[in-house]
């Protein structure tokens, strides 16, 4: 990822049970051991705001989601760790994802 430019994220996921209104994700972003963001997001509301090709209720099966965002220009040249835990409306585990985003190099790396 390059600060100030578009970043397109493509996600393929398998939904094993219907994702209903009220499903949410707890997101933590860290630089080293320092938390810079800790926030809960409503998954269905975020999907509506992002205008992606999935909505709630999300049916069982494979889903492909593509979303493009413009990154802000002032991003610190650090390596970010992102931890996401998603839950159903009944608080049952739905998904988890760990990402490292490295802005230390000129082009940046996402893995």
Describe the structure using short key phrases.
single chain, 111 residues, mainly beta, Ganglioside M2 Activator Protein, Chain: A, five-stranded antiparallel beta sheet, two-stranded antiparallel ribbon, 1 helix, globular, ML_dom, Ig_E-set, Phosphatidylglycerol/phosphatidylinositol transfer protein
Could you explain how this protein is built, in words?
With 111 residues, the protein is mainly beta. The protein has one domain (6-110): Ganglioside M2 Activator Protein, Chain: A (Distorted Sandwich). The chain is built from 1 helix and 7 strands; from the N terminus they run βββαββββ. It has one helix at 43-50; strands at residues 6-15, 24-31, 34-42, 61-70, 79-87, 93-102, 109-110. The strands form 2 sheets. Strands 3-2-5-6-7 form a 5-stranded antiparallel β-sheet. The chain has a two-stranded antiparallel ribbon with strand order 1-4. A hairpin with a 2-residue loop joins strand 2 (24-31) and strand 3 (34-42). The longest helix has 8 residues, at 43-50.
Report the average pLDDT across residues.
92
Distance between the termini: 11 Å
Unreliable spans are none
CATH topology: the name is Ganglioside M2 Activator Protein, Chain: A
CATH class: Mainly Beta
Give Rg in angstroms.
15 Å
Global shape? globular
Q: Tell me the total number of β-strands.
A: 7
Structural class: mainly beta
Give the percentage of residues in beta strands: over 45%
Helix fraction by DSSP (H/I, runs of at least 4): under 10%
Strand order of the largest sheet: 3-2-5-6-7
CATH superfamily membership: Ganglioside GM2 activator
H-E string: EEEHEEEE
Largest sheet: 5 strands, antiparallel
Q: Could you say what the CATH architecture is?
A: Distorted Sandwich
Tally of contiguous helical segments: 1
The overall number of domains is 1
Domain MD-2-related lipid-recognition: 1-101
Pfam family, one: E1_DerP2_DerF2
Organism: Phanerochaete carnosa (strain HHB-10118-sp)
InterPro entries: Ig_E-set (IPR014756), ML_dom (IPR003172)
């Amino acid at each position: 990822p390059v600060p100030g430019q578009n970043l397109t994220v493509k996600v393929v996921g398998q939904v094993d049970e219907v994702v209903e209104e009220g499903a949410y994700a707890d997101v933590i972003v860290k630089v080293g051991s320092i938390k810079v963001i800790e926030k809960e997001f409503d998954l269905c509301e975020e999907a509506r705001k992002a205008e992606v090709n999935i909505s709630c209720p999300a049916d069982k099966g494979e889903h492909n989601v593509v979303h493009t965002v413009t990154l802000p220009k002032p991003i610190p040249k650090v390596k970010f760790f992102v931890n996401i835990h998603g839950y159903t409306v009944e608080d049952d585990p739905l998904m988890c994802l760990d990402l490292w985003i490295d802005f230390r190099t000129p082009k940046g790396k996402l893995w």
